[in-house]
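Pair request: fold both.
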Amino acid sequence: MIKSWLQPIGAITVIAVMTACGGGETNKEAGEAEDSGETDENNDVEADPATFSDEEFMVIAHRGASGHAPEQTKHALDQAAEMNVDYLELDIQKTADGELVAFHDDEISRTTDGEGAIGDHTLDELKSLDAGSWFNEEFPDKADEAYEDADILSLEEIIERYGNDEKYYIETKSPEINEGWKSNSWRL
C-alpha cells in the first residue's frame, strides 16, 4: 500500500556522495589522483578535495548515522539530524501486509533478533523485534543501553517524526521480491 503522501514522488535523482565511513584510506589508496594538478578522468575536476567548495558536495547520512548507532533506527536518524546532514538516506522494503519500512537487507537476521525474509513478516511482527542490540555487540566502543530493543521504523513513522525539517534520499529495495516494485531512488 502506498501512502497518499508518497504518491506524488516520481522524480529519480542521482546524487554524488562523498562519505566519511571508509577504513582510513588515504586519498592515494582510494584511487584519487596525486596532488599534481591531474584531473579525474570521469569528472574533469582536480581530484584534490581542497579544490571543492561546500556547495559541490552534499552530506547524505547512509542509513542515518549508521556508524554511530543502529542503522535506520530513530537513534541513527536522530544523530544524523543533529549532525545537520543534507539528506537522511533510507532503504525501504515492503512488509507482508504491504507497509513500507526502513530496512536494508532482504533477510532480517543481520540487524535483528529475528529470522527470515523481511517481506514474510507483518509490520506488527517486525515491531516486536530488537533492531539495536546487534550494534552494541558489534561495536562495543559505541554501545549504548538505549539501543537495546530499538524498533524497525515504518516510512510513515519517519516522515511523522522528522517531517519537513529533514530531506530524504529514499531507495526502494529488492524489486525481485516485492511484486510490482521497481528499484529507484527518490530525493525528497
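--- second member of the pair ---
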Amino acid sequence: MEPLLLFTHIPKTAGTSFKLGVLAANYREEETWRYGGIAAFLRADLARLRLVTGHFYYGLHRVVRRPCRYLTILRDPIARAISHHFWVRQGDPAVYEHPDWKLHRRYTVDEILAQSWKHRVQRGTFRLIDNQQTRYLAGLEAKALPMDSELLLRRAKKHLRERYAAFGIQEEFARSKAWLSETFGWAGEQAVPKQKSTHTKPELSRATLDAIRRHHQLDLRLYDYARELFERSA
C-alpha cells in the first residue's frame, strides 16, 4: 500500500503557497484530508487518502494502520515569529476573526512571548509559542517541555533526520520544491493566486528582537541544523 503522506504545516512558513502550488497539482481533492482534529481524522476513510495536511504535531502516524511519510517546511525563526504576529494582528475580523486576533492586537510580541508558557499545554496551535518549529517536530508529548529543554531539541532533530523523508526551507523555496518533487515523484505545479500576506511591519525595538531571540534559541539551533541537512541532501 502507498504510504500516507503527512504534511506538518507550521504556521507562516509558506506552507499554504506550497499546498496550492505543488500539492494540489499532484493530489486530487478527494485524496486529501485537511486535518481539523484527531476525532474527525479517526472517523475519516483513511484507505482512500494519500495526503494529510494541517497544523498538527509530529506523531499522527501512530494512529494510522499503514506506512506514513512526513514532510514539512521550515523558516528562519525570527522572521517567522515576526510574520506570525503581524499576520494575525492585521487580520480583518469582519471577514474572519482569527482566534488570537484580540491577543495580538492587545499585546506586543515580547508581551505575548512572556505569557506564552501557559499556552504550551493548551490545544491552540496558532499562539506565538516559543520555539514553535521545534515543538511541532518534537511531537505533542513534548509540547509542555520548557523553552531551554535539550530533550525537546534532540527529539526535533531526530525526527527531522530520521522520520521526515524530505523538507523545505522557506528561504530556499525553489530548491526545496525541486528536492521535494524528486523525493515524492511529483510531476509539476500550478499557478498560485496571491495569498494573504503580512503587510509592512513596523520597526521592532531592540528589546523586542532580543525577546524573540531569547524565546527561540532552540528554533535557531534547529534551523541551523536543518540548513546543514538541506545543503547535503537537496
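Observation on the second member. Residues 217-233 form the longest helix (17 residues).
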